[in-house]
Write a structure and sequence with these properties.
- This protein has a domain at 571-631.
- It is built from 29 helices and no strands.
- The chain has helices at 3-7, 16-36, 53-71, 81-99, 107-111, 115-135, 138-153, 168-177, 185-207, 209-221, 227-243, 246-264, 268-281, 291-299, 304-332, 344-351, 355-366, 371-387, 396-430, 432-444, 448-463, 468-485, 490-500, 512-521, 525-535, 538-548, 558-581, 590-604, 608-630.
- The chain starts with a helix and ends with a helix.
Length: 631
């Protein structure tokens, strides 16, 4: 949430100071947790010592609920403000009850929950769903309610979908008091690594480091054809992975890049689409990827450093695809670069010290340090870096602002992950995941490409109502086993689903990042979404090639296999780009475009002979087009 958003709420009046204090204290509490691990427990009071997941996750969610109800009011009418205070107070009470629950006792297993604990658990579930409605939208709440209803009344459904119906007491006990639902892994990841890197992004913004990366992108790419568009892609690659949100990245970098793209000659819809496609790519770009990457590391029991290495080549291929489309559009229209821009040397001279925190956290991540500790260290590093130079030196106001922004940006993320945890809990309690796996396997009938299409459609539908991370969590629990049954490795299956979960940001009919860009560009939202999905075709091409090529850098693959897969994927991207745009070095004739599509089909087919033939055909088309351009 930006300062502008905050100013629009009733909370911006009398309660603004309360919000600032609570948000800053939440960030400080989160930052203290990894630090407390270095202090012997006997030297600290219980509430300051490192909290285990059983207590840390409820405390985090309770804090988020209280803060969320103050920031996202029920109504703009001040006369109804008391309802938000009431909800916040009830959330604090329910959290207190849960934190004091005796997990070591077995009475609740034999006789069920007491009235107080049952009421507290039910209240937390209801308040989490209500805050998700306010902060994210009604679809998230509806999906949570549908899954809870399935757990309660699944026995009334037809046999193909039926499950054992659970009592509400059993559902609440499983969701709240076992650590497998509301307080499960999704919330644990959101409260840990994701919060830290969202906070790190807030410090980048408050210290001016974010502007340095955008200026550097313009200095590096501004002189080339379509310079602002290419700079937008580079800046979004740098900033998107840290912001944790494609929409936030679109708004942040797009406010600068979109007007420049329009001035250069791109249409409003193209400008919005380019920024949305580039911002979406930021969530898959190492070293600091979107929140889903931390979830993937947890789900697959793979170190985050390994996830980073596996993601490197696919991410570079995505941005190669986006840059290629941008270049072809600019070349087809004869666009030139920016006439006035700062030199890269002057930008580096002004802010090169901001590279140090990124180098620092990248090194720590690749050395397999805890992402939570790395994120906390990064926040400190960015403050220290800002203090190194007089013109970037910050005071306590900027630090408090960063603490506040980080906590406010984390509220919808934590809330979404809590609801996703409810969904995951229902899937585990009812066995729905096994039924979905059997459905996909039965419908695909051993055809991996059809399973890929089914999962892509499911990702798109889920993404219409869920944030990307929540969509990935739900889909991975349900669909990853199906891909594994068909022969894919665990990490590869999750990586494919992770990529496909990003598509909802740019794919009509609901493409939130594209719509955000359209608002800045004064463009038609749906037309902007169609431009975005054209430029973001890498989100479909790259995971498709993951299915049929050794594109991921794993212990079994090695650099040789990964680079070979990347080579064929790059040729496929080129073939599709020139065929769709109808331009390479010169306008393609109609038959050349069709031959380009044929080459693309041959390059997808998992046969060395087929791919070699497709590559030869593509090179032939390019040579012919180049000759006609020089004629």
């Amino acid at each position: 949430m930006t300062d502008m958003d905050l100013a629009k709420t009733p909370a911006a009046g009398k309660t603004s100071l309360l919000i600032v204090v609570m948000a800053a204290l939440l960030s400080l509490y989160q930052l203290w947790q990894p630090v407390a691990g270095f202090v012997p427990a006997e030297y600290l009071p219980h509430w300051l010592a490192v909290q285990g997941a059983t207590y840390f996750r409820p405390a985090h969610l309770g804090w988020v609920l209280v803060l969320g109800f103050l920031v996202y009011p029920l109504s703009a009418l001040r006369s109804l403000r008391f309802i938000d205070y009431l909800f916040a107070a009830i959330a604090a009470w329910a959290t207190f009850v849960v934190l004091n629950f005796d997990y070591r006792g077995i009475d609740h297993l034999l006789n069920g929950l007491s009235t107080v604990h049952y009421a507290a658990g039910l209240t937390l579930i209801a308040l989490t769903l209500e805050l998700s409605r306010r902060a994210i939208g009604p679809v998230m709440m509806i999906i949570g309610l549908v899954f809870l209803a399935y757990a309660a009344f699944g026995n009334l459904l037809p046999d193909a979908l039926a499950t054992r119906g659970f009592s509400f007491e059993r559902i609440v006990r499983f969701q709240v008091f076992t650590g497998a639902g509301l307080f499960g892994s999704p919330l644990g990841i959101a409260a840990g690594a994701v919060f830290m890197f969202v906070l790190f992004g807030a410090f980048l913004e408050s210290t001016g480091a974010g502007k340095f990366f955008i200026d550097l992108a313009f200095a590096a790419a501004g002189k080339y054809r379509g310079g602002p568009a290419k700079a937008s892609v580079l800046a979004s690659a740098a900033m998107g992975s840290i912001s944790g949100s494609a929409i936030a990245n679109t708004v942040t970098t797009g406010s600068l890049t979109i007007p420049m793209m329009k001035e250069l000659g791109y249409s409003p819809e193209e400008s919005a689409g380019i920024e949305a496609a580039a911002s979406t790519g930021g969530q898959i770009m190492p070293p600091v990827m979107g929140a889903g990457a931390f979830v993937m590391a947890e789900f697959t029991r793979t170190s985050y450093s390994d996830i980073v290495w596996m993601s490197l080549l696919p991410a570079l291929l995505y941005f190669f695809s986006t840059l290629l489309y941008v270049h072809l559009i600019a070349a087809k229209r004869g666009m030139q670069g920016m006439s006035e821009r700062a030199s890269a040397l002057s930008v580096m001279a002004h802010g090169a010290h901001f590279l140090l925190p990124l180098i620092f956290i990248t090194s720590l991540l690749l050395m397999s340090y805890s992402p939570v500790l790395v994120g906390a260290s990064g926040c400190l590093a960015i403050v220290v870096a800002a203090l190194l130079r007089a013109h970037t030196r910050i005071g306590y106001k900027q630090i408090v602002t960063a603490l506040q922004r980080g906590a406010l940006m984390a509220v919808p993320i934590s809330c979404a992950c809590a609801v996703a945890g409810i969904v995951v809990g229902v899937i585990g309690q009812t066995g729905l995941g096994l039924q979905f796996t059997e459905f996909v396997l039965s419908l695909a009938d051993g055809r991996l490409w059809l399973a890929f299409v089914l999962i892509a459609v499911a990702a798109l539908i889920l993404g219409m109502g869920l944030p990307v991370t929540a969509a990935y969590i739900v889909l991975s629990v349900m669909a990853a086993p199906a891909l594994q049954e068909m022969g894919m490795a665990l990490v590869a299956a999750h990586m494919v689903i992770f990529w496909l979960s990003q598509t909802s940001n740019v794919t009509p009919p609901i493409a939130l990042a594209a719509f955000a860009g359209a608002g800045i560009a004064s463009a038609r939202p749906m037309a902007s979404a169609f431009e975005a999905v054209k430029l973001a075709k890498g989100l479909f091409i790259v995971p498709l090639m993951m299915v049929y090529s050794p594109l991921l850098l794993t212990a079994d693959n090695g650099w040789g296999g990964a680079l070979e897969g990347a080579f064929w994927c790059a040729l496929l991207i080129v073939a599709l780009a020139i065929a769709i745009e109808g331009f390479a070095f010169h306008r393609l004739q109609s038959w050349q475009r069709w031959v380009g599509f044929v080459a693309a089909g041959l390059l997808v087919y998992p046969s060395l002979v087929s791919r070699c033939v497709g590559g030869v055909i593509l090179v032939g088309v390019l040579l012919i087009n180049r000759r006609s351009a020089n004629a």
